[in-house]
Amino acid sequence: MPGEILRIGFGEDIHRLEVGLPLIIGGVQIPSPVGALSYSDGDALIHAICDALLGAAALGDIGTYFPDTDPSNRGCPSSFFLSHVRRMLEELGGKICNIDAVVFLEKVRLAPHIQEIRKSLSRMLDISINAISVKASTYEGMGPVGEGLAILARVVALVSFPADKSFHH
Ligand code: MG
């Protein structure tokens, strides 16, 4: 559309998995014997979404705003990070066109939870569920993800901004 520019962003996040920790993906707690080791709640999908959205606006990454050296971020729900990023985009007039994500996880089946994760993200971002794609995949038994030692999320996001917005920040 005239008067708009579209910008793409990419985000990736990986967390170690350990027995007895909660596994939270897209704000949804998934029944699992292992969960993500993290300073926050370890929601790799939300962290990758934050980085993709920040990337579309060339605003750095989640660690810039919520460093893991800051004790106030300890145990922080990732929904808090996402709402902060959402506000940053809104200040630039940014509107999320769509998000496409892949979550790599061995052993725990994500397929039964995909709809709930999409709904959760749709609520957090106040965008249509149709604008949020979440896919589940594995690493075919290879490497730390394949051995069930880590969860990996990769996300692309497309964001439209008013064409007159300056990105000279
Ligand atoms: Mg992370």
Provide a descriptive summary of the structure in words.
The structure is a single chain. The protein has five helices and seven strands, in the order E-E-E-E-H-H-H-E-H-E-H-E. It has helices spanning 44-56, 62-65, 78-91, 114-125, 143-146, and strands at residues 4-19, 23-25, 28-30, 34-36, 95-104, 132-137, 150-162. The strands form two sheets. The protein has a five-stranded mixed sheet with strand order 4-1-7-5-6. A two-stranded antiparallel ribbon has the order 2-3. Helix 1 (44-56) packs parallel to helix 3. Bound molecules: magnesium ion.
Task: Present the secondary structure layout.
Layout: E1 4-19, E2 23-25, E3 28-30, E4 34-36, H1 44-56, H2 62-65, H3 78-91, E5 95-104, H4 114-125, E6 132-137, H5 143-146, E7 150-162
Parallel strand pairs: 5-6
Antiparallel strand pairs: 1-4, 1-7, 2-3, 5-7
Helix pairs in contact: 1-3
Magnesium ion binds next to strand 1 and helix 1.
Concise account of the structure shown:
With 169 residues, the protein is an alpha+beta fold.
Bound molecules: magnesium ion
Helix content: 25-40%
Main structural class: alpha+beta
User: Which stretches of 5+ consecutive residues score pLDDT under 50?
Assistant: none
Distinct helical segment count: 5
* Strand order within the widest beta sheet: 4-1-7-5-6
Beta-strand level of the residues, as a percent range? 25-35%
